[in-house]
Structures are given as C-alpha cells and as structure tokens.
C-alpha cells in the first residue's frame, strides 16, 4: 500500500491531468526555474532556518518543542475570514503561551481545550475562525499520543527517521489531520497539515535529532491558499474564466467542489514539475523547500499578488 505522501502525489497528478478549471503552464515553470538565482540555492536544498523570533524551540526539551509543532499545525489553517489575522499571530501567540507556562501543552490542558483557549493561544482579542473545530483538534492530541506512550517524542521515534512514515502515523493518530476530498467519484489526498508538521520538525531541529529524516524528498508541498495565488501570479497556474472571476471577486468556493480540488491538486503537481525542472542544477531540492520559498515570496509580495481563493475548511 502506498504511503500517504505517495497518495497525495498520485491523486493530485490524476486530477491535474483531467481538470477543466485549472491548467498548469509548463513553459512558465521552465522560465521560473531558469530565473532562480544561485543565491536561492542554499535555501532550496536544506531545512530552512527556524525563525525563533516567531517560533518556539528548546532543543534541550524536545518533547515540549515537538508538542509546540504539533499544536501549531493542529491550528494552522483558515486565517483569511478574519481580516488581518495571519499565521504569525498563531506562531508567536503560541510561543508566548508556552514560554509563560509550558503546561499549556500538557495532556490535561489540551484535552479540555475550548474556543476561548484557542483565542488565547492566538494571542488575539478578535474572533478566531472555526474556533470550535480548532478546539476539537487540540482535544484529539492526547488521545492520539496515547498510542505512542503519551509522548510526542514517542510518535516521532516510531517513524524511525522516516518523514513519510511520520506523516502516516500522524494521519492514523489524529482525525483532524485527515485532509481528503472526492473528485468525480475518486478520493484525492492532500494531508497538508500532517506533512507540514513533519517539515516543521525537520526545520525546528535543523535536520538533526528528532528532525533527522532520511527521506524528506518524499513529502509534497502543502496545498493551501497562499501558494496557488503565488503560482498564478507567476503565470504557472491559469484559471478558467468563471473561476478567475469568482476568485478575483472574493467569492467563496464550495469545499470539495471541483474548482477548489483542482486548485489544490494543480498546486501540488506544479510544484512537483518545478522540482523536476530544478533538480539537474539543484540535486538536493525538495518540494518542501520549494513550498517554503514560494510561500515566503507570496507573503512578501502579497499586496501585488493575485487574490487567493476562499474556502472555509479546517484543512488549510
């Protein structure tokens, strides 16, 4: 049976081949690949520096750091409904809470999670979208960790330094990470947050200790709403007229609808094609590092970026 990462890659490619709402421009991919400067090379072939101004890390307390990553990615979705709310609010708010009281990540605390607790973790006074769902995902964590001795370190150790195996274990243990859809009668898999948790562990520990994975290249990119907007800005993704009009007007796309699934699937496939185009000159490149580079480029230029699609889901 293929691993979760292979299922993402294969099912996304299948959707991209037959999709009618979103098309991938291979000439644009080639042009972008040719334009990437040598200065980007180091960032595209290894774990990105874990920004401790934004994220918590204590390598002397790996259990706490891993729990931080797990909680971070249990909550890492759907910021757009609240104007001004960004991923950084979650990462820094959670960091501040952990530094003030590490017991906020204890089993008892997470099992009793409430929407008010979610808002506190974000460090925000404004409402947090889908706070009930976020609280439910937090409450799932202690139950899922019981399979691994109640420890996040046990969860990671069970993967035996395999990034792909850790994604499988996360999807198995935590229902809230089971990011799937149905497209024309067939299952499509994305597992955005399960994969980004593994990538965050890799980044937080600099590819060493708990983050020493031998197969990070098996991860795909993390299908969200920022990267497809960046790929569209670059001319790599092209939306059919009706879809382009809906996205540009800020109209919400139905969750699991053909257009929404095609956007995510085409994004996964486009990044795979980009990786293939760059591999001859950057043999160590991964879809993870390409995702980070594209996401950061999108964040830096979001004022000039094509609008992102809007779908209210607890997956991304």
Unreliable residue runs: none
Mean pLDDT: 95
Strand segment count: 4
Q: Which percent range fits the helix content? A: 40-55%
Distance between the termini: 26 Å
Backbone shape: globular
Radius of gyration (CA) equals 19 Å
Structural class: mainly alpha
Strand content: under 5%
Q: What is the N-to-C succession of helices and strands?
A: HEHHHHHHHHHEEHHEHHH
Number of helices: 15
Query: Multimeric state of these chains?
Result: single chain
Major beta sheet, specifics?
2 strands, antiparallel
**Neighbour order of strands in the largest sheet:** 1-4
Q: How do you describe this structure in short?
A:
This protein has 316 residues and is mainly alpha-helical. The protein has helices spanning 4-18, 26-35, 41-44, 62-74, 87-100, 107-111, 115-122, 131-145, 152-158, 163-173, 192-204, 226-233, 241-248, 258-278, 287-300; strands at residues 22-24, 180-183, 186-189, 237-239.
Descriptive notes:
The chain is mainly α. It is 53% helix and 4% strand. It contains 15 helices and four strands. The strands form two sheets. It has a two-stranded antiparallel ribbon. A two-stranded antiparallel ribbon has the order 2-3.
Record the SSE blueprint:
Elements: H1 4-18, E1 22-24, H2 26-35, H3 41-44, H4 62-74, H5 87-100, H6 107-111, H7 115-122, H8 131-145, H9 152-158, H10 163-173, E2 180-183, E3 186-189, H11 192-204, H12 226-233, E4 237-239, H13 241-248, H14 258-278, H15 287-300
Q: Notable features of this structure?
A:
single chain; 316 residues; mainly alpha; 53% helix; 4% strand
């Amino acid at each position: 049976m293929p691993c979760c990462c292979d299922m993402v890659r294969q099912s996304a490619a299948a959707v991209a081949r037959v999709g009618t709402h979103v098309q991938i421009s291979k000439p644009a991919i080639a042009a972008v690949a040719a334009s990437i400067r040598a200065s980007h090379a180091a960032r595209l072939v290894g774990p990105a520096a874990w920004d401790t101004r934004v994220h918590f890390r204590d390598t002397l307390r790996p259990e706490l750091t891993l729990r931080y990553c797990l909680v971070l990615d249990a909550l890492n979705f759907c910021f757009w409904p609240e104007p001004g709310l960004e991923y950084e609010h979650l990462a820094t708010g959670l960091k501040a809470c952990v530094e003030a009281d590490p017991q906020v990540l204890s089993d008892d605390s997470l099992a009793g999670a409430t929407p008010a607790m979610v808002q506190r973790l974000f460090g925000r006074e404004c409402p947090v979208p889908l706070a009930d769902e976020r609280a439910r995902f937090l409450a799932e964590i202690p139950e899922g960790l019981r399979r691994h001795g109640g420890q996040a370190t046990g969860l990671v150790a069970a993967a035996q330094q395999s990034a792909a195996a850790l994604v499988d274990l996360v999807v198995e243990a935590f229902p809230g990470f089971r990011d799937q859809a149905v497209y024309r009668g067939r299952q499509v898999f994305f597992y955005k947050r399960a994969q980004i948790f593994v990538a965050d562990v890799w980044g937080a520990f600099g590819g060493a200790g708990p983050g020493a994975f031998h197969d990070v290249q098996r991860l795909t990119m993390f299908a969200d709403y920022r990267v497809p907007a960046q790929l569209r800005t670059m001319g790599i993704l092209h939306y059919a007229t009706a879809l382009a009009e809906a996205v540009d007007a800020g109209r919400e796309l139905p969750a699991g609808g053909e257009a929404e699934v095609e956007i995510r699937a085409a994004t996964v496939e486009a990044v795979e094609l980009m990786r293939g185009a760059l591999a001859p000159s950057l043999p160590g490149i991964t879809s993870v590092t390409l995702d980070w580079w594209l996401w950061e480029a999108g964040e830096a230029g979001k004022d000039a970026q094509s609008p992102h699609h809007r779908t209210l889901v607890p997956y991304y």
